[in-house]
Design a protein that fits this description.
Elements: H1 14-37, H2 61-73, H3 94-100, H4 103-110, H5 112-120
């Protein structure tokens, strides 16, 4: 692969931040919705969660698109904090889990425009350090 074919690094960008704001907002809404059903439920997202608005990963377009695609398709999205000795992730992402049973995710899953966008997106599974 020559230099012209190398994909850019997954870094924060204006587009990533704009999409990340929406992903964080939807996840916050899902958590608020869940606390009505489960009083005392706490927000377990890590400080650098892709599903937390304002985090570095939440501003990276590629990561945000992967997170959205995984939320909609129910493909597991793994937390980036802890890994097994073989390098595989240990925990499911708490932000991803928060969206799974929410009405927010159900609406995303039922929107044909969203389905087409997700089908066109090539989710990278999993990108490990």
């Amino acid at each position: 692969m020559d230099e012209a074919e190398v994909a850019p690094l997954n870094r924060p960008s204006p587009e990533g931040r704009a999409a990340g704001v929406q992903l964080g907002r939807l996840t916050d809404k899902a958590i608020a919705e869940a606390t009505v059903t489960f009083p005392g439920l706490t927000d377990e997202r890590c400080k650098s969660c892709a599903y937390r608005g304002g985090s570095i990963p939440n501003g990276c377009a590629e990561t945000v698109m992967d997170a959205i695609a995984c939320a909609v398709t129910r493909e597991p999205f793994w937390c980036h904090l802890r890994f097994h000795a073989d390098g595989s992730p240990m925990d499911l992402c708490a932000g991803w889990a928060a969206l799974q049973s929410s009405s927010v995710a159900e609406r995303l899953r039922s929107d044909p425009r969203g389905q087409q966008a997700i089908e066109d997106w090539d989710v990278r599974r999993p990108v490990l350090p």
